[in-house]
Amino acid sequence: MKIRWRGHASFIIETGNKTIVMDPFNADYGYPMTPVTADIVTVSHDHRDHNAVVTIDGQPRVILGSGTVEMEGISITGIASYHDRSAGRERGLNTIFKISAEGLGLVHLGDLGQILSAQQVREIGTVDVLLVPVGGRYTIDAGEAVEIVQTLQPKIVIPMHFATPHLSFALAPVEGFLSHYDTVIKKPYLEVNSDNLGLDQRIIILEYL
Description:
Layout: E1 2-7, E2 10-15, E3 18-22, E4 40-43, E5 61-64, E6 67-71, E7 74-82, E8 93-101, E9 104-108, H1 118-124, E10 129-133, H2 142-152, E11 156-160, H3 175-178, E12 185-187, E13 190-191, E14 202-206
Parallel strand pairs: 3-4, 4-5, 9-10, 10-11, 11-14, 12-14
Antiparallel strand pairs: 1-2, 1-13, 2-3, 6-7, 7-8, 8-9
């Protein structure tokens, strides 16, 4: 499985013969609009920095909301959650997506705004790679992200949804999250399989396209 970060909360996941784009944004948010063709697009919620499906080339299948979709050795499960700490009254709903493929479980928390409930943790299950928002303001903040990492115990943690030189609105920088960890690895992209996960948890910062 190959994982590339497009910036903000958007990732390109290549697994088997499929390309999955998660939470695409549009040009309003400052990041380079590198052309991407996908077979599948997941959308965690209906805000423009996460739902810009029209920017993705090809004729991708769009996956929204709760439930499980299976195709050619890939299972994608949506798990209901909230975009805020007030049961959705401020910013509505958010979908956590888990991609199960190649013997791996990759979880994208979307714009999660709450600490996970016991039921949500059970629905998520085993996590090998966690894509977690850390910038606060519209999502969980750095401290809450650390708490979720401790709960889910992923082998690999990739922070997202934080301030960068390109992002056009204010979020907290990633350093508040990284300060909780002794070692941080920086990579242009990540290639991972069930054999090279390792035993120790790794915090990885990806470069955006």
